[in-house]
Amino acid sequence: MVGLWPSEFKGNDLVSVKDFLEGQADELPNITGKMVYAKVEEGGQGIPFINNEFVYRFELGGYYLENYRFRVFIFSHDILLYPVKFLLDEELSREFGYNGGVVGSCIYTAKNYDEMVELMGRIFKSRRVNLVVGSIMQMSRKYGMWE
User: Fold this and answer.
1) Is 7 inside any structural domain?
2) Hey, which end of the chain has fewer CB within 10 Å, N or C?
3) For the chain, what is the domain count?
4) How high is the pLDDT of residue 70?
5) Residue 92: inside a domain, yes or no?
6) 61-88 per-position pLDDT tens digit
7) Is residue 95 in a domain?
C-alpha cells in the first residue's frame, strides 16, 4: 500500500483568542478593585452567521451582583483559530457606526492576531464598556455590597 500521509504534522503556534481574552479577564478585577470580573465561557451556538466549531461568550459581571451578566460579544473560530468572528452587543455596534445586521448587532471578522488585538482595544476602551463597568462598580457601592 502506498502511504499518502506526510512524515510529520505541524500545528500552528498562534495565540488563541480564548487564551488572549482569559488573560485580559484576569486583569479586570485588579483594575476595578475586585468589583468587576470578565469571563470567557463556551456557548452561543445557534446564532446565525456564527457557525464555527468553537463558540464562546465574553461577559462582564460584578462580584457583588450575583445575578447580573453583561454579554459584550460572542466569538467563534474553526480549528485553525483565525479568522475569528465577533458578534458585538447591539449598542456597541452602534457606537462603532454599524446600524443593522443580525438583531441590530454586528459581526466583525479579525483575520489574524493583530486585527483581533486592535478590535479588542477598541471594544475595551469603548464608551459602552466603560459605562457598563462603571455602573457595576457604582451599584456595588450604592447597595452596600462593597466593603
Assistant:
1) no
2) N
3) 1
4) 95
5) yes
6) 998 888 889 999 999 998 889 999 998 8
7) yes
